[in-house]
């Protein structure tokens, strides 16, 4: 029996922190730091022939234009989350435009998925606002979804627009509990639900790749690697799915995070090359 491994990346630039973009956070999300993070990850994946899912905030992938700036300004009147994005775009700040990142990921042959048009959490959107977000997405990029902030809502809207699947969410009541979960070495893989029962399918939520920032720097890299290995072993034994996710922005703001990603990729490749694990994307794992 073999299981599956997925790596998915939430690709946001500054959109993901638009509601708390402090000067310190902004300094970690310059164009140069973002480009270095994306290029490093994509080159690493290429070196081991591994395909991943890059879920982009749609407006992060668009070239700078007056139309986009005006669209965000207009939406900010109803969605306060976007006020800082509107200001940043109007001022020509770095970190809001990442059409180059989409080009990098696409050239690498990775799945391009949808992470919302603006990164406004979908639990704060009306149904019509959610539909408006879907309208902004390129149709070929909305086959699978990663919800902003992992806040799942409006599944009927996803179905309406032909979205096949979304990444589930593993909830932790507090940040402390989320941090402590990094030391849970017995976390099991998850089974993919019946793919014929309904659309969109909930893809197992998996685990966050530890971001080496703040208190999370206290998590030893050896623990992160062992946790990944145990998860892959369980997936191989049970036919489950081992799903690992992160933001390239985590690498941009805390470069030591790259070593955690590299260790997990090395573990995945070892299981793949031993014939115990199939490497999948969010889209390919749905195929029989």
Please explain how this structure is put together:
This protein has 288 residues and is α/β, with parallel strands linked by helices. The protein has a single domain, classed as Glycoside hydrolase/deacetylase (TIM Barrel). The chain has helices at 23-27, 31-47, 66-76, 83-90, 99-107, 127-136, 155-160, 175-181, 221-238, 248-253, 257-273; strands at 3-11, 53-56, 111-114, 144-145, 165-167, 201-203, 207-208, 241-246, 277-280. The strands form two sheets. Strands 1, 2, 3, 7, 8 and 9 form a six-stranded parallel β-sheet that branches. Strands 4-5-6 form a three-stranded parallel β-sheet, with no helix packed on it. The radius of gyration is 18 Å and the shape is globular.
Features:
TIM Barrel; 288 residues; globular; 9 strands; 3-stranded parallel beta sheet; alpha/beta
SSE blueprint and pairings:
Layout: E1 3-11, H1 23-27, H2 31-47, E2 53-56, H3 66-76, H4 83-90, H5 99-107, E3 111-114, H6 127-136, E4 144-145, H7 155-160, E5 165-167, H8 175-181, E6 201-203, E7 207-208, H9 221-238, E8 241-246, H10 248-253, H11 257-273, E9 277-280
Parallel strand pairs: 1-2, 1-8, 1-9, 2-3, 4-5, 5-6, 7-8
Helix pairs in contact: 2-5, 2-11, 3-4, 9-11
- Mind telling me the CATH superfamily name? Glycoside hydrolase/deacetylase
Total of DSSP H or I helical runs spanning 4+ residues: 11
The CATH class name reads Alpha Beta
Helix-strand sequence: EHHEHHHEHEHEHEEHEHHE
Structural domain count: 1
Short description:
This protein has 288 residues and is an alpha/beta fold. Helix content is 40%, strand content 13%. The protein has 11 helices and 9 strands.
